[in-house]
User: Fold this.
Amino acid sequence: MPDSGYPWPIETTRLDNGLRVVVSEDRSAPAVAVNLWYDVGSRHEPEGQTGFAHLFEHLMFEGSVNVAKTEHMKLVQGCGGSLNATTNPDRTNYFETVPAEHLELALWLEADRMGGLVPALTQETLDNQRDVVKNERRQRYENVPYGDAWLRLLPLLYPPRHPYHHATIGSMADLNAADLATFQAFHTTYYAPNNAVLTVVGDASAAEVFALAEKYFGAIPPRPEIPPAPDGRHVPATGEPAVERVVTDVPAPRVYVAHRTHAFGSPGYDVVTVLATVLGSGRGSRLYQRLAEGERIAQPDLVGAYGVDLAHAPAPLIATATARPGVTAERLGAGLAEVVDELATVPVTATELDRAKALLSTAWWRQMSSVEGRADVLGRYATQFGDPRKAAERLPAWLAVTAEQIAEVAADVLAGPDRVTLTYVSEETS
Amino acid sequence: MTLITTRPGAGAARPYRFPQVVRRGVAGGQVVAAHLPGQTLAVALLLLDAGAGREPGGKEGLGAVLAKALEEGTAQRDATAYALAIEALGTELVTGLDWDSFQVSVQVPVDRLPAAVELLAEAVRTPRLDPDDVRRVRDDEATALRMDWANPGPRADAALRADLFGGENRWGRPLYGDPDSVAALDVEDVRVFHSEWFIRPGTLVVAGDLDRLDLDALGAAAFAGTGGGPVDRGGPIPVVPRDGRRIVLVDRPGSVQSTLRLGHPSPHRAHPDHVPTTLAGTVLGGAFTSRLNHLIREVRGYTYGIRGDFAASRRFGRFAVASGVQTAVTAPALVEAVGEITRTQETGVTEEELAVARSWRAGQLSVELQTPRAIASALATLVVHDLPDDYHARLREELLAADVDRVSTAAATHLHPGSLTLVIEGDAALIRDDLVATGLGEIVTTTP
Assistant:
């Protein structure tokens, strides 16, 4: 395997209006990935406006000054492309992969909605997409057992007014209250070239992309003052574990144990990434071996642990297990807590560490195996750490993590008083 | 501000070439490989003629249980030792099941592929299948299905499938079985299914940098100790669309959305209309810009999304539309969805819509076929459906050549709006009267 996590060329420039452009040429397939990271997410939302960053993401597909409503999707799909967008607490990204000869079309579309969305935004569009998003909320969070776990974990992990206190999907009440002027202002405030990174990966040269970026984005004015999100880097420990028990219509008891750890991108979070893999990824993980295999109290398909890669505050580590029939939530919760506790007291063996690193290596290269996977990573590192080349450091950093570091980090951030425990029990068994 | 107002045209088209396909017989089995120079990762996928279609009636879920049981220890090592050995290479054993095939695969850095294929073969060919383990895996699988069936969707899917194909037929029952059919399996069923279908050689699909791989050695590892030849796979099964529409109401009290599954039988995979039918499905419900998504999501705001497509396996196919709509608008959403299906059947597609659909499908061939996993999956399609090495190149041409007449004719021939089964999983107390009032068909209530 290559020593670097990113063995492809990276070239960067910055337009006069502040737009950062990242290009990574790879001619192995006639496809090109275009990816825009806007440095705005649900962490920027003030109280009463939860869900706005995500609802706004929907509006970005509904037409702009030179692109009629519904035309965006039609043009990208009509040239053979795939496209989507996502919003999370940290940022909003928009991306499409198109046959290489349609690169210019993709850049034109992105520029038009960066520089010309507001005049095209109508009340009708807002009302329609508000309904769509409310249905998204029903489908993903309200209509499925345990679907609201993430909505419940965040306020337990982060105090009121912390940028991660509320979930990106927002509340129904806030979505209902959303008015057009707020969204027009939202675009003006945050969708500025100096608040974005444009990344192009694949069958295109840096010179070609830089020239096209200048042609399509160059005239969009920067915004001088972009208000930052509230600072969430320091989350005061309460000294008290947070516990929530939900009695509802679920098919089996389930427990989540969650902790605030370190921010994504920090050395501490590299340790957490390896730790999470040791703890909860695969059949060789501690959780599987202890709860699904050993004690046989957890359902084998539903046990695991993962970090949520957020960069602007201590990011969550979440471990979860669902009870086998006849096992109580209490017994399952005790078993889960014990395995998490032992990360600080029972040293990780060389076998466990090697297994985790092998799985992480494959995961990294899987992300790198497509042009869109690479574009998203470069956009992230340019946006969050100021330099896409830093992407190459992540895999080597994971591979350098030691068992001692895992024990230290576990002792530091996974202690009982800092723990969030969310338990679901069914109405019949409660 | 000066945005460029004119939409740019396309640059010079750059040819897409599917990687060169290598086929060779090794040790009684077939190796089918694609060369991906410079790729760090490689995928090996063992394809067995052991799809759900091979499960005997009344034994639905056998393949899914066996898939889990493969990892419960082998002739050489116990379950924990096996997990540690394969995960130390950086992969898990990934199993997949459809109507036509059973697939087991690994994905690792290319230099680890020989070791990973040996472990894959060890699990597939020589699983321990200890009776206690098999019973536990079966019980866990039944529990997992019960968990899954608590979500909206699986019950509606099962109701649709049963109404289309008949619950007395294997293909009229869920692909992975249901919680009861899985719970009723016994150890002997699993062992017999393994001995019947899992020690025939099958086909090893490899996608990776072939300059660094020895296909003969990989094949020898995958096919060691196998025997038995191919078994006749049977021809297409004739399925007659039902006479008249019917609404099947699956009660889910308290549901804040209604789950819609509308469908009817359609042609099998090798039918000569496969490409135009796929394109008709794309215009109607296959892309974000489809008629259904445009009307039900973008105009009405009834849903987060609605999709419709024709799906085909070797022996049968089905057309189906799937969505989740807000409870209060269940009836209008249903009426409008049926209206779009009817309109498409009656009046066909327009050139403008078809232009998007065919370029999208053709372009996806270069956009989506990048990763070793995607290439392996494309190779598996060649094997399962007996397609030639240049299939992807020909498919692209056939897609681009499909005209309005051909696609509209396919829509007229293969859409049957008058024979639709309309499954609605939702809060029956709230939606039943509205559904009756639509007059779309007789209502049957089921509690599967």
